[in-house]
Specification:
Rossmann fold; single chain; 14% strand; binds shikimate-3-phosphate; 162 residues; 5 strands
Length: 162
């Protein structure tokens, strides 16, 4: 019975790999962004623009405090979730945290195509610089994960969790 938290920057593959991992382990799969979107009846972009980032972060933290009875689940967290308050410590207490550490240039390539759905990137004048700056701030939080996989694929993840 366990909770596996996939953490990492936007575009690091938490959702795609998380779904596959859950399937292979026979666990359920859950996305924190999706949960908040469903609860609010709004997309993440709409929540950021109508209620603000601080509100969104509060929802992420609230969600974590409700997870205690959940088990056998892979959770793909929003990229900023581990970097607020004591969320990283809480996740480490509740389950196994895995940082999907992806090279900056790969992230930039992926996010170039997807930045319109990421409110923190959609207005970036220089995407590379924005990602680099944000990564610098976030790395100390991500580094608290119990495990780190560099440029993870499904095989490396299953090997770690299986
Ligand atoms: C965010 C990442 C997004 C989403 C929101 C904020 C962030 O999730 O939670 O746009 O602060 O890094 P993904 O990491 O799934 O893109």
């Amino acid at each position: 019975m366990s909770i596996i938290f996939l953490i990492g920057f936007m575009g690091s593959g938490k959702s795609t790999l998380g779904k596959e991992l859950a399937e292979q382990l026979g666990y359920s799969f859950f996305e924190t962004d999706g949960w908040i979107e469903e609860k609010e009846g709004l997309s993440v972009t709409e929540i950021f623009s109508s209620k603000g980032e601080a509100y969104f972060r509060d929802q992420e933290s609230k969600l974590l405090s409700q997870l205690q009875l959940t088990s056998d689940i892979v959770i793909a967290t929003g990229g900023g979730m581990p970097c607020v308050g004591n969320n990283m410590d809480l996740m480490n207490q509740l389950g196994t945290t895995i940082w999907l550490d992806v090279e900056e240039k790969i992230l930039v390539g992926r996010l170039e195509k997807e930045k319109s759905t990421r409110p923190l990137l959609s207005n970036a004048a220089d995407l590379s610089t924005t990602i680099r700056d944000l990564l610098e701030i976030r790395k100390p939080f991500y580094q608290k994960a119990k495990f780190t996989i560099q440029n993870a694929d499904i095989n490396s993840l299953v090997k770690l969790c299986g």
